[in-house]
């Protein structure tokens, strides 16, 4: 009886973690814009911005957390996505393509650039790759700053198109808020599938030991390129959303701090866990704004929190939880059981 | 028929010839041991077969097909798997995930398949997990499938390495010191496992080993390397009495005592 009770409790416990907690979190997130308070817009802005960092974090997670490719220049892909949006949907070149199309184009363009930067550095590992990507990030920012006749230099590009889907045009922050979180949910869903597939396991194997992965038959060059392109695609989409939300962009929106912040988000959240990114972004991006009440001391409090966190839980809030496969009831087996009972 | 034959293989590291003009022939479904003192070039030879090193001269044939210079993943695809001298598992993955990663070349579902969760993806996932469980029970690791690889006991980790290596149904398995650091009873179990790999799965086994008792018991052919060259080759009994082998291991009879 006692055993039965503990088993039941265990099962309930798992259900809470699997279903109840995520749905509670999503209800809270979804209901924030519905609150009728004068501070509503501020909250939408803060949490929505954290949501944008979840998207970026998921992109970087593919690079660092899954494929094990140390990337210190992720802001470059963010910038490429944002500037693609600015070129294709603004009076700057007088091109006005629809929002969703530009979103995909921005991602694709970032992915192509990602592939091009990845090809020459396929043989580099660890810190060396970090240095190359760090340089790449700065080069992109410098180009944006200095190619004044294309990018308008540090003056930036203004009056970007407001997003319109079909015939509706959206101007409010609430649209971006919901759009970002729908995209987050979609990305989480798809990434979860990919991680638990042949592709995802090839990435994880590569992260653990590149030589052994290759001698086990994994074409590491191919999977590195795929990971880099996918991460860059997600980053590029994030950039396009950022550009259309803010309405104007400047090279300084994409400096090295952004790359470091995104990296902190995924390290704090837990490398290799796509759900950890949510917690990481909330803690790193939303918390400093929420702590604004403490004005001068907020960065000190924030830094202290980070240090304490890394001492107590160095593998991040949510380390990767491996799927339990051995006792998983396979689909065919399950059907048989039902027939028996 | 020879499943692997190398002719004239030479691998240099700067001025050092790690292996020199090596001619080796391995017949199908045999158990062959490669022995020799430390630094004789045994592991280098394995690295040349698996494509991790590219030999300067010579060629290696696998089933009469040239594999010299192919990248490692292509050679693994052809059907040559290996284990490592120092255990090299994917430590933060579970035991089953290690085997699933080893099955990579046997599966075909692409990135796009997994994105849309196509029928092929779902079927392959079910199939591959099923096969992984079979391999688990074959090497005697049933029940620890969901543990992290790094949490396994030492002997179990060695078994898991073999499990991962046989997951893509190889024709040849290279074992680099499979019983290093094991106690006598674990060694006996390992000998049984190696025999079963050959008898049940018909895998050709090539192993590097320092435990001479094990080598004599299990091998059908022994190849002795010293300073990168083959100094002897033959059945266990012949090797035991070969004067050049005794010299390589124990040195020349000291003239002082004569």
Summary keywords:
heterodimer; A: 341 residues; mainly alpha; two-stranded antiparallel ribbon; 4 strands; 2% strand; globular; disordered C terminus; B: 258 residues; alpha/beta; Rossmann fold; 2 domains; 6-stranded mixed sheet; 4-stranded antiparallel sheet; 10 strands; 39% helix
The termini of chain B sit apart by 47 Å
The chain-level mean pLDDT of chain A equals: 86
Helix segment tally of chain A: 14
How big a fraction of the residues of chain A is strand?
Answer: under 5%
Which chain pair has the greatest contact? A-B, 38 and 52 residues
- Adjacency order of strands in the biggest sheet of chain A: 1-2
Q: Percent range for helical residues of chain B?
A: 25-40%
Give the radius of gyration of chain B: 20 Å
Query: Which structural class best describes the helix and strand composition of chain B?
Result: alpha/beta
**Poorly predicted sequence stretches spanning 5 or more consecutive residues of chain B:** none
Strand order of the biggest β-sheet of chain B: 6-7-8-3-9-10
- Shape, principal axes of CA atoms of chain A: globular
Structural class of chain A: mainly alpha
Poorly predicted spans of chain A: 333-341
